[in-house]
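[step 3/7] fold_predict: job queued, chain A
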Amino acid sequence: MQLKDMEPVVKKFYEGLEEGKLWGRRCLECGAVEFPPHLACNACGYHATEWYEVSGHGHLIDFTVPGPQNDKPYLREVGKYAYGAVELDEGPQYTYVIFGITKKTAKDVRARLMAGETVGVHPKIIDRPGYKELCFELDA
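[step 4/7] structure written:
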């Protein structure tokens, strides 16, 4: 799908990626942040939300290294990656592509998570045909 064909809430999100900004929605009732954005609050069900720029910084919750059947060549061109759950500093959790995890480093990253260590992540926006895709990368 091309950016010009997207629905307004999705379009604002992807326009933000074009500008290097991450847009979510904040509930006017309870203050919960929806990211990726939704028009209503998933925390309390309230119907009114407003645009809110999220930092993009957070931490890794869990991950899996892709096997050959779900490896994506376009991602491999960018770098070594895994699929993982991220919790942003603002609270929302979602699954993303996580760069910086390889088959060789996966055991160490898993051990750090199991030991209770916070494994930080930051946004990595990559180019796709007609739009940008939000991924994350392990902090140094």
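[step 5/7] annotate
The radius of gyration is 16 Å.
The chain has a mean pLDDT of 92.
exit 0
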